[in-house]
Amino acid sequence: MVSPGRSNNTNTAVAYEGSALRPIRRLFYAARWAVLAFVLLITAFVPFHTVLVQRMHLIVSVLIIAFVTAIVQILARKWTWLKKPVLSVVADIVLVSIMLYFSDGIQSPFYPLYYVTIIIVAIDFGMGGALVCAAVLAGLSLGIDIISPSRTFGEVLILHDVVRTVPYLFLIALITGALWNRMRVLDETASALRADRAASNREMEVASSIQRAQLPVETPTMQGVYIAAAYKPAREVGGDLYDFYPVKEDIVGVTIADVSGKGVPAALLVSASKYAIRANYSTDQGAMMSGINRHIIAVTTDEMFITMLHGTLTPHMREFKYVNAGHMPPIVVKGSTGEVLIHDHSDPPLGVSELCVYHEQRIPLEPGDTLVLYTDGVTDALSWLGDGTTAFKKFLAQVASKDINTWGDELINYIEAPHHLDDITMVAIRID
Question: Domain 216-431 belongs to what architecture?
Fold first, then answer.
């Protein structure tokens, strides 16, 4: 039962072959050679007492078919039409029929190979092909027994083939065909899902690269000011934003924002937020935030909102003026004492109501002080230690004397991986 190979012809019933089914198909093709070896060994060495087996005829027939099949496999490398599955099926049927003819017909110990043939046909051609094969094998089974000199036609037809074997040929065809068709449907579905997932992953990679391009490539450089930023999204794309805006040579604008939700919708709103900031930029930060609010309401849904903190840092005056639209309060780490102070004032988030009013606040700074802006992903990730804000203040007190460029890495290490469920963003600004 040796196949000349699998078909490359997409017009046959074997046109579809999903990755999950290839191992099964290859297993059955390889099994044909194993069956040949098995038949030869059984015929040569196992004694038969209840059936008449013409050993020499059977061995010679099997060797001839194996030799012809091997030659066909070699020639099929040049002539691809020899790879058609129908040729393989014909070879299988001829081989098994010869085995039955030389081994007492339906009483042959090799009769179950007919069932194997039906299974292989079901793999290549589905249920329809398996039923046709069962009909052909039933006819051959009758014919072989009819020409057998050891039994009469009536005995064969009624007692043996019709009652004991023919129904099982069709039963196996039905069961195998149905199972294989079901497996093909499941494999097609799985392949489609894998393709959709791969396309989605490629889209997410593109979205991630686009979003990363919106973040500052580097932090601003100003005399007497040191700025460090840390950003780690919870998914491929995140809902956090931080940015710097040159106002004057000695004044820099700083924004940090957090969009409700995560993933692609949040990333889209991040892009809209960045555009809204630049479109509404003003020295009147309260009016600027109101303009951003109106812009966000126009482009978002009722289910989404944005928290944002925007301010300007004036190093020579050592002050930070800002507007807080529902965002996490800024923190100042005092350089002289290491004390951590929270400036807790907040107006409503963006995207909630056009009637919201925003007020500018002021934080005085001293030499050595570090201003820390962050998103709620930081405090949420630290909530496993108790109160997230308290845990973050404790962390800042521990790193107060260190270079602020190391704070981001230490924060990520401080947060255990299972607790990193939201985007994490932190901006630290130290004044000399």
Answer: 4-Layer Sandwich (3.60)
Report the C-alpha gap between 379 and 392 in whole angstroms.
6
Residue 368 Ramachandran class (φ > 0 left, ψ -120 to 50 alpha, else beta): left
Distance CA 327, CA 333 (A): 18
pLDDT tens per residue, the chain (432 residues)? 444 444 444 344 443 444 556 676 677 667 767 777 777 787 777 777 666 777 787 788 778 877 877 787 777 777 776 667 777 778 788 888 888 788 777 777 777 888 888 888 888 788 888 899 888 888 888 788 777 655 555 555 556 566 667 788 888 889 888 888 888 888 788 888 888 888 877 877 776 676 677 788 788 888 889 999 998 887 666 678 899 988 888 889 999 999 886 667 777 788 888 889 988 988 899 999 999 999 999 888 777 899 999 999 998 888 999 999 999 999 999 988 889 999 988 999 999 999 999 999 999 999 999 999 999 989 988 888 888 899 999 999 999 999 999 999 999 888 865 555 678 899 999 998
Half-sphere exposure of 88 (CA within 13 A, CB side): 26
The H helix count followed by the E strand count for the chain is: 11, 10
pTM over 0.85: no
Backbone φ and ψ for 83, nearest 5 degrees, come out as -85, 0
Q: Where are the domains of the chain?
A: 22-196, 216-431
Which of 76, 69, 113 is CA-nearest to residue 91? 69
